[in-house]
Design goal:
The complex is a heterodimer of chains A (about 300) and B (about 300). Chain A is α+β, with helices and mostly antiparallel strands and about 300 residues long. Chain A has 2 domains: about 110 residues, Phosphorylase Kinase, domain 1 (2-Layer Sandwich); about 180 residues. In chain A, the strands form 3 sheets. Chain A has a 5-stranded antiparallel β-sheet with strand order 1-2-3-5-4, sandwiched between helices. In chain A, a hairpin with a 4-residue loop joins strand 4 and strand 5. In chain A, helix 4 runs antiparallel to helix 5 and helix 4 packs parallel to helix 8. The mean pLDDT of chain A is about 90. By secondary structure, chain B is α/β, with parallel strands linked by helices. Chain B has one domain: Vaccinia Virus protein VP39 (Rossmann fold, 3-Layer(aba) Sandwich). Chain B has an 8-stranded mixed β-sheet with strand order 3-2-1-4-5-8-6-7, with helices on both faces. In chain B, helix 1 runs antiparallel to helix 2 and helix 1 packs parallel to helix 4. Classes of the chains: A alpha+beta (about 300), B alpha/beta (about 300). Chain B: This is Methyltransferase type 11 domain-containing protein. Chain B: One of its GO terms (molecular function) is S-adenosylmethionine-dependent methyltransferase activity. Chain B: It holds the Pfam family Methyltransf_11. Chain B: Keywords: Methyltransferase, S-adenosyl-L-methionine, Transferase. Chain B: InterPro entries: Methyltransf_11, SAM-dependent_MTases_sf.
Chain lengths: ~300, ~300
């Protein structure tokens, strides 16, 4: 495969390379959570001759049948690139460069994000939040400012979930009765998988990688919920109270209640249905509700 | 190739469970199905087949016309992922029971391009120049356990020569193996079942193993220069070496051995845990000399040798 990689890079990325940059070196890399399955991505960092940092990130799959994973990731990145084009936020993401698909092999080429993974603490969480809030504020401005009520958000999330009609109906009832939240939020694309592994730090700032789930939700706060949850689940509510009001203000949302439960339920539902191990048609709403009640009992909101 | 169907030339078994128990497991698969088998044996037999076990294969040219020999195939962890991308995999092992299991596993996974052969590495029933790739994952260190040669090194060279003969011109031999001077051998046991034997001079390891185990030290591993010499004597001129982390059985990170910059990048940019080992690794990465020294104690290697 390396020979094919090299041939394609040589042919299609001429503006990035000179003769002296060859031979290229390849570092195969995956994190513990990257996945070892047949349909998971395999990642190579590509280095120019004599370079200490990679200039490309190459993504492929173990099995051509799983090519959708590469297509989705590449197209999602192109969407982010288009949304941030000409803004200071282009640096937050890689740049999609080329997609190779010869019917037997598929791989995508994107610029390598600078930076390294660091252990997240409260101080650098603040830095992440500042960068991320600005980026989301920029998208909100571009979006024109129309907002949605909790009822609309719930309807849209549940419709997108892929659950059966009766399950959707029951979930709407559950939200209306038990999880009222006074809120109006704009539609803003979410990264969808804002985990610690996907944050890289450099002297130029933050870079967010892994674009598999970009756009899986457009409910503001979904990314923050995911990040806070993984950062410190015990302090989830505290972190939400600390950051959500400023975030919602930045994106032009209205949030006049401190009842986070309704929002959390929508985030939970989105995560639950995007989990590859769950098949939406087979999930019952009771399962989702009981899972939510177990993870976030009413007492955790007091 | 001479053989198109399963052939048995020899039968030797070892494994986590006894052969009799493994036979029982095969019976359960036949009579009660895979779900019952998985439930009963999940903690006793590692039959998982993570698809990333053969991720090293991206570094060599393989396609849908390639024919592969998986020597020492075991339970098929390498054969399965390879079978998805090549024309045919011949899985060869010394145990009839393991090969029966592998065949059943291939069937249930819908992989009908895996052929099983039970044979010893020194007596494999294949014609010369039959394979595009020969896999020896965790095997070369064990081939010295034979009476056919005067010492383990001779056996290893003979084995590599046999593989070279079986490779087509331009074909690749892949070897996944430990570093003789891996740091982990200072706190764990060597293949001999004893501590520190890989670090000892061979004559001392021999005497010590004889004293403790009643037989010679016959599971030789080497450092990079040792492997280079071994492969050269077997007729492979310039093998390529890769560092593989956490080990060749689970190649999450594969780094070209000769490129210290990539090792540094891995240690500095990709290891974000704050364990003592990782903190030390990051300190090491600050100095080229320390990095060079650290590389000599890395746990294991992927080796590719082209005919």
């Amino acid at each position: 495969m390396i020979k094919i990689f090299e041939k394609v890079i040589k042919e299609h990325l001429t503006e990035y390379l000179a003769e002296r940059d060859f031979p290229l070196s390849y570092l195969k890399f995956s994190t513990v959570t990257s996945g070892s399955g047949l349909n998971d991505k395999v990642i190579f960092m590509v280095f120019k001759n004599g370079a200490s940092l990679p200039f490309l990130c190459l993504k492929t799959v173990r099995n051509y049948e799983a090519r959708q994973a590469i297509l989705r990731n590449f197209n999602n990145l192109k969407t982010l690139n288009a949304l941030t084009l000409g803004s200071p936020y282009t640096r937050l993401f890689a740049q999609a460069l080329y997609l190779h698909d010869d019917g037997e092999n598929i791989f995508s080429l994107e610029t390598a994000c600078p930076g390294k993974r660091v252990k997240l603490d409260k101080n650098n969480l603040r830095v992440v939040m500042a960068d991320y809030f600005d980026f989301q504020g920029y998208l909100a401005e571009r979006g024109g400012g129309s907002t949605r009520s909790m009822e609309q958000l719930a309807k849209e999330t549940i419709t997108k979930s892929g659950l059966s009609g009766s399950n959707q109906h029951k979930l709407l009832g559950y939200i209306a009765k038990k999880l009222p939240t006074s809120i109006r939020l704009p539609r803003i694309i979410q990264h969808g998988d804002l985990t610690l592994d996907n944050l890289l730090w450099s002297k130029d700032g933050l870079c967010i990688i892994d674009y598999d789930y970009v756009g899986s939700s457009d409910i503001p706060g979904f990314d923050l919920f995911g990040l806070f949850h993984r950062f410190n689940k015990a302090e989830l509510l505290k972190l939400c109270k600390e950051y959500f009001p400023a975030y919602f203000k930045k994106i032009g949302g209205e949030f006049s209640s401190d009842n986070y439960r309704g929002l959390w339920f929508l985030y939970h539902l989105t995560e639950f249905t995007q989990d590859k191990s769950n098949n939406s048609r087979d999930i019952s709403c009771e399962q989702i509700i009981s899972d939510f009640e177990n993870l976030y009992p009413t007492t955790s909101f007091s | 190739m001479k053989e198109k169907t399963t052939k048995t030339i020899i039968n030797r078994y070892w494994g986590k469970i006894s052969e009799a128990e493994f036979e029982k497991a095969l019976d359960i698969i036949d009579k009660e199905g895979w779900a019952v088998f998985a439930d009963k044996f999940k903690d006793r037999l590692d039959f998982t087949t993570e698809e990333n076990r053969a991720d090293w294969r991206f570094f060599i040219p393989l396609d849908q016309n390639s024919v592969v020999l998986d020597a020492g195939a075991g339970l098929g962890r390498i054969s399965m992922p390879l079978a998805r991308v090549v024309k045919k995999v011949v899985a060869c092992d010394v145990s009839v029971t393991r090969m029966r299991f592998l065949k059943k596993l291939a069937e249930v996974k819908g992989l009908n391009n895996i052929e099983t052969v039970v044979a010893d590495i020194f007596n494999m029933p294949f014609e010369k120049e039959s394979f595009d790739l020969i896999v020896m994952n965790g095997l070369l260190e064990w081939v010295g356990k034979t009476d056919l040669y005067n010492n383990p090194r001779e056996a290893q060279i003979a084995c590599l020569k046999i593989c070279k003969g079986l490779l087509k011109k331009g074909g690749f031999l892949y070897v996944g193996i430990e570093n003789r001077f891996a740091l982990s051998y200072l706190r764990g046991i060597d293949h001999s079942g004893l501590k520190f034997t890989s670090y000892m001079p061979r004559w001392l390891a021999d005497k010590y193993t004889l004293f403790r185990k009643g037989h010679r030290y016959d599971t030789y591993t080497y450092n990079i220069s040792g492997y280079r010499k071994l492969f050269k004597e077997a007729g492979f001129k310039t093998p390529d070496f890769y560092l593989v982390y956490p080990g060749y059985n689970l190649p999450r990170i594969i780094i070209p051995y000769d490129n210290l910059r990539l090792l540094k990048y891995t240690l500095v940019s990709m290891m974000h845990g704050n364990t003592l080992v990782r903190k030390m690794a990051k300190i090491v990465a600050r100095s080229s000399l320390l990095l060079w020294i650290y590389r000599n104690f890395f746990f294991s290697f992927n080796i590719f040798a082209q005919k």
